[in-house]
Amino acid sequence: MPPKGCMAVRVGQEGEELRQFVVPVAYLDHPLFAELLDMAAQEYGFNQKGPIAIPCGVDHFRHVSDVIHSDQGAAAGHRLRHFAACFWSSMRENKIYFWGD
Question: What is the value of pTM for the model shown?
Answer without folding.
Answer: 0.70
